[in-house]
Design brief:
With 111 residues, this protein is mostly beta strands. Helix content is 0%, strand content 50%. It has no helices and eight strands. Strands 1, 2, 3, 4, 5, 6, 7 and 8 form an eight-stranded mixed β-sheet that branches. A hairpin with a 2-residue loop joins strand 1 and strand 2.
Length: 111
């Protein structure tokens, strides 16, 4: 993940069976959002982050992963920079059902 430094801007590194494998770095909090049809898997490569849900929060440590089911509102948050691999359907918009001028990435870069 040394090929980029920006936060909240997922990069597609591979595709398989209709799924995109994306690298992303983030720090701070993201926007509350959900994905109507897509599940997402977040695998922590370096650091740790908290996945906020409306009814609870879950810390995901380095080497751990979490699957967020479709339709579940969530918000990632990291106290310090974290490096994550995302597995999600290729067409998944990072902000799901929300458009945010600063964080929505309509066409992720391929690296």
């Amino acid at each position: 993940m040394s090929l980029f430094s920006e936060h909240w801007s997922p990069k597609i590194v591979a595709e398989l069976n209709g799924q995109a494998v994306k690298f992303v770095k983030f720090v701070g909090e993201f926007v509350w959002h959900s994905h109507e049809h897509e599940d997402e898997l977040f695998l922590v490569v370096k650091g740790r982050f908290r996945m906020d849900f409306r009814d609870r929060a879950v810390w995901i440590e380095q080497g751990e992963f979490i699957v967020v089911p479709h339709g579940v509102e969530h918000r990632p948050y990291a106290e310090e920079e974290v490096e994550v691999i995302l597995f999600e359907p290729t067409a998944t918009l990072n902000t799901g059902d929300v458009t945010d001028d600063a964080k929505t990435v309509k066409s992720p870069e391929r690296i």
